[in-house]
Design goal:
Strand order of the largest sheet: 11-23-24-25-21-22-12
Helix content: 25-40%
Radius of gyration: 35 Å
Number of strands: 25
Structural class: alpha/beta
Oligomer: single chain
């Protein structure tokens, strides 16, 4: 240890820095090799501090250690003398993984031997100052000087940055003179209106949606054919030839895939994966393959296959979303499934060595994965009929074996998956390289999780078996079929995924963010209707005519978007909560002393008589009406129905009482003990106006002053059933 510390201090490191470096085994090994190589060229005392600094920087940043000796030589031979040149050198070797390195191209890319004279620096800075002279004179020292520096550095790529900065400062001072008191004042802050506008513009990206930015250039993925530039990608002697053939097949097209396991229904987390995979492909004019990871016949059913396809199409079947139909075809259940067994056996023979650790029924891959798992299974025997191929096969590959090979067969450029698959990356690269086939790049991102829910297939099955929920599409769940049944628009789910964004870290989000996206969409798309959940009969004693038909706008804020008609008779129904016998402070609706307006009717009503049953409960009101144009303006207008349809309304709340029902520290007795007893409230005799009579399943409405609702599949010709999608966004303190 003492010898290594002395070696490190010999190139200018402090003793403390040398000891800290020793704690990093990989860095200390690389630095030691770099110094030894440098001393072979320059001698034990020929490596000065400047060279030592570059050697340390190189050792800490170089990923491919086979280039260490080459770069060490370049440093001690004074070919690389600045950090800027070193950064260019590191980028060059990363982009050129195969031997031999073209020395001329390398030196040109790294500015070897390029000398920037003081005169060139002066001329370059002068050109930049001249370009911005008018704005500089206007804004003086409030001008963004970083812009000048950036353009000067770009024009004088290999010049010393400090010298360039000094020249910029000197020429600015010469142009503007010393700072005045006005120059020393802080620049006025941007107003909120401008700030939000800026954020909006940043999100729209000059016509591009936030989703397109997240899926496109903002992610800075490797370009097709440049897989080797990705950190951790394994390069073999055949890599470049395989990439060349890959590019000939794809023509440089972006290719991604969405490969769900067909043993359950997709949930909200899958929505992020669908948006990411299909969206990234579409945003870059590429293609995304829908592919089923059907390697476990014991748990797979046909209903899951069709359910997955339906949900992918539902999320993308809207021309206003970013998804569209990005996938080019429905891939077969697995591109590996129908390949001849002889071909598979040839591949087996080409594997380095199969290890049958569990007897003759199992074939394993001889390797160690990131998480320490050794020799992952490649094939196993299962005498279980497959729901599509029956008994045709008795051998089934595992995910670790099929996933990378299916990606390779389909020439996938970007294999995007959630973070838990990071441990499989080593087997992914190992198998492709062991079989000498094209190797795509696997990139992991953080899963999307929501509070107050569970999405595990096993746990949802337990909820169904326990009778807590009806099935996978129970509107209290966060499966995609459940969200659709509850009335969540596909566009809102896609917008939610855009807001959450694509992050490497796992994210846990509150449901109210999703509900906010739902409201935003439904506010613009759900036509208005009137419904009364807890009816109170009201008889208008002086209505001029027995009945009339009113035309009501579908969207009161924009009456050009259509309208519908509703009857208005002397008998109407209002919400029980819209009447109180005793006027309380702050209450603005109907009381014996306080009139109220009727929405869309043009009348104000006043109580004449309160009728009660034998228990003293108010069962009917007799009221008089007057024209709203002549009456004093009431404090509030309420909704009502007349000659209504009787319907069933289902009101949903959170299924679980705690944020994290699966967390033992929060719910010690398990998630089944955390069920909210009030998660479903059924109103069997609600009243709704006749405008909804012709509604189809999943049609959505805003019931004025009540909430957003969607027609449930349980509806019949005799009785409609509505699910409350979300409540209205109202002031919770409003009475």
């Amino acid at each position: 240890m003492a010898d290594t510390v002395a070696l490190f201090t010999s190139i200018g490191l402090s003793e403390q820095k040398a000891k800290e470096t020793l704690k990093n085994e990989a860095l200390s090994s690389a630095l030691k090799d770099a110094i030894v190589q440098a001393q072979r060229v320059r001698g034990a005392s020929g490596v000065d501090k400047a060279m030592g600094t570059l050697l340390y920087s190189m050792a800490s940043r170089l990923k491919d250690t086979k280039r260490l000796a080459f770069l060490s030589d370049c440093i001690v031979q004074c070919k690389i003398i600045t950090e800027l040149q070193l950064a260019a050198a590191l980028e060059f070797v990363k982009s050129h993984p195969q031997d031999p390195i073209n020395q001329r191209e390398f030196e040109e890319a790294c500015g070897v031997g390029v000398v920037i004279t003081p005169e060139q620096i002066e001329d370059g800075v002068e050109s930049v100052i001249k370009k911005h002279k008018e704005q500089l004179l206007k804004e003086r020292y409030h001008f963004n000087m970083g812009l000048l520096m950036g353009e000067a550095r770009s024009a004088l790529k290999w010049a010393d940055g400090k010298v360039v900065k000094n020249e910029v400062d000197m020429q600015v001072l010469h142009l503007l003179g010393p700072k005045t008191e006005a120059d020393l004042e802080k620049k006025p802050k941007v107003t909120h209106g401008t700030l939000f506008k800026g954020i909006s513009e940043a999100m729209t990206g000059e016509g591009k949606s936030l989703m397109e930015q997240l899926r496109g250039e903002a992610l800075k993925f490797h370009k097709p054919g440049e897989n080797y530039k990705t950190e951790g990608y394994v390069v073999t002697p055949k890599t470049m030839d395989l990439l060349k053939k890959h590019m000939e097949i794809t023509g440089g097209q972006i290719r991604s895939r969405f490969p769900p396991e067909p043993n359950g229904i997709l949930h909200i987390g899958h929505a992020k994966a669908i948006n990411f995979n299909f969206g990234y492909a579409k945003a870059n004019n590429g293609i995304c393959f829908l592919r089923y990871d059907d390697t476990n016949p014991e748990k797979e059913e046909e209903k899951y296959f069709t359910g997955i396809k339906d949900m992918v199409e539902w999320l993308g079947d809207n021309s206003t979303t970013s998804l569209g139909h990005a996938y080019g075809h429905n891939a077969p259940p697995s591109p590996w499934r129908d390949r001849p067994i002889e071909e598979s056996l040839v591949l087996f023979e080409r594997m380095k060595k199969g290890l049958f650790a569990e007897g003759e029924a199992t074939l394993r891959m001889k390797m160690v994965m990131e998480d320490g798992k050794m020799d992952p299974v490649a094939y196993r025997i299962k005498y279980t009929p497959h729901h599509r191929t029956g008994d045709e096969w008795c051998i089934y590959p595992t995910y670790d074996y099929t996933h990378c090979l299916c990606d390779s067969i389909e020439n996938i450029t970007h294999s995007l998956c959630t973070k838990e698959f990071q441990a499989r990356r080593s087997s992914y690269y190992w198998l492709c390289n062991a079989l000498d086939v094209y190797c795509p790049v696997q990139w992991e991102y953080g899963r999307l999780n929501l509070t107050y829910t569970v999405v595990s297939k096993r746990k949802i099955i337990r909820l169904v078996e326990a009778g807590v929920v009806r099935d996978w599409d129970d509107p209290r769940l966060f499966t995609l079929t459940a969200l659709r049944r509850r009335g969540f628009p596909a566009e809102a789910i896609n917008n939610f995924c855009a807001r959450v964004g694509v992050t490497v870290s796992q994210t846990t989000t509150e449901p109210h963010l999703l509900e906010s996206c739902v409201r935003d969409v439904l506010n613009d798309t759900a036509p208005r209707a009137m419904a009364v959940l807890e009816p109170l009969k009201v008889t208008i004693t002086n209505l001029p005519a027995n009945s009339k038909v009113l035309r009501v706008p579908d969207f009161p804020a924009n009456e050009t978007k259509g309208s519908h008609t509703v009857p208005f008779t002397h008998t109407i129904f209002i919400e029980q909560s819209d009447f109180r016998e005793v006027l309380e402070k702050g209450y603005k609706r109907l009381t014996p002393e306080q009139p109220v307006g009727l929405r869309h009717a043009g009348y104000v009503i006043s109580v004449q008589k309160v009728i009660k049953d034998t228990q003293g409960k108010v069962v009917e009101l007799e009221v008089s009406c007057c024209n709203s144009e002549t009456a004093e303006k009431p404090k509030a207008f309420i909704h009502w129905v007349s000659q209504p349809l009787v319907c069933e309304v289902r009101l949903y709340e959170r299924l679980f009482l705690h944020k994290h029902p699966e967390d033992p520290s929060e719910v010690p007795n398990g998630f089944l003990s955390d069920i909210n007893p009030n998660s479903l409230h059924v109103i069997s005799s609600a009243l709704v106006d006749t405008s909804v009579k012709g509604a189809k399943v999943f049609d959505k409405f805003q019931f004025e002053r009540v909430g957003y609702f969607s027609l449930d599949p349980d509806s019949t010709a005799d009785k409609l059933v509505f699910n409350r999608t979300v409540t209205l966004k109202e002031d919770p303190g409003k009475i």
